[in-house]
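Exercise 4. Each item below gives a protein and its sequence. For each, produce the structure-token representation.

Item: 1-deoxy-D-xylulose 5-phosphate reductoisomerase (Methylomonas rosea).
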Amino acid sequence: MKGICILGATGSIGVSTLDVVARHPDQYKVVALTANGNIDALFEQCLAHRPEYAVVANPDNAQAFKDKISGSPVAGMKVLSGAEALTQVATLDNVDAVMAAIVGAAGLLPTLAAAKAGKTVLLANKEALVMSGQIFMQAVAENGATLLPIDSEHNAIFQCMPAGYTTGHTAKQARRILLTASGGPFRQTPIADLDTVTPEQAVAHPKWDMGRKISVDSATMMNKGLELIEACLLFNMDPDAIQVVIHPQSIIHSMVDYVDGSVLAQMGNPDMRTPIAYAMAWPERFDSGVAPLNIFEVKHMDFEQPDLQRFPCLRLAYEAIKAGGIMPTVLNAANEIAVEAFLNEQVRFTDIARIIERSMAQFKADCADTLEHVLAADRQARDVANAVIAELKH
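Answer:
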């Protein structure tokens, strides 16, 4: 029986993880669940899974949650609040695995703490790795942690790697990674029409059920840009050896091209429970609840090269990882600020890339050798991005 802590339990990844956990009560016990503000969903999850701890990261909502559980079957559960509590539950002695599913930079510190505590880190929060880069990978290596990717693409790549492969190492026989992308909702929209895209249109992903921020990232293909950076770190490969391939059916989740000409692909229905279950059962496999792929219903699969004029955020991600240092941190921070401004209808959809590019132009690729340096760059990049937004609004 393994103890699991789910950081970001009420989001789509957290919900899918609990679905998988419920299918294997003999193998996993929920030790801690965390949420930011959705206390109603967290309460229902606590009733169903009876964790020892619940964390409400937003202190303003913590007291409301305590009032909500008073007199309920989970009234004796320990309730913590604040960002520090996320790190506390991620490093508990009886936690074996940590599902890192908090979106954005907020997930960095507890995820890094889990790695330093030698946990099995199930990484769904790509921003944590994008921001901290080698600092994170070094923490995994030095503390005996196990890092397993949850993003469907990185999980697919991991499944296609040679037997015995561990993240952070180069598979010498692998010459290229083919990182697939759906292309999002605007793959065929006339570029001239992208100026008038609304938040509601941007979050309507054709294949995946994701949160609003990640859905916008998919629409701009920044999501794939962050995954590109993540893939360079997870699989220790040069960005020029990673090719993004638009595959709108989302049946092949990614591929690895080997020196002998073999290309291995991982396929399946687009359901996040597949990579979650693979990582939770690794190195074995168990049932995820996902329906078997009916290959006859697929009929055909299409592949396209991404148009960097349509998707400038992908170009910026390549530039950031090639520059190195703090530039991926700057890219990520500016993107978070830009996406938030777009969702709040303060800037246009096409302004997202402009904000990121103008923000990156104000930084040099200084070495990101300490966590303090990374966090400082993150703060500065957010300030710069907000200043750019203020200029665009006038």
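Check: The two ends are 58 Å apart (CA to CA).
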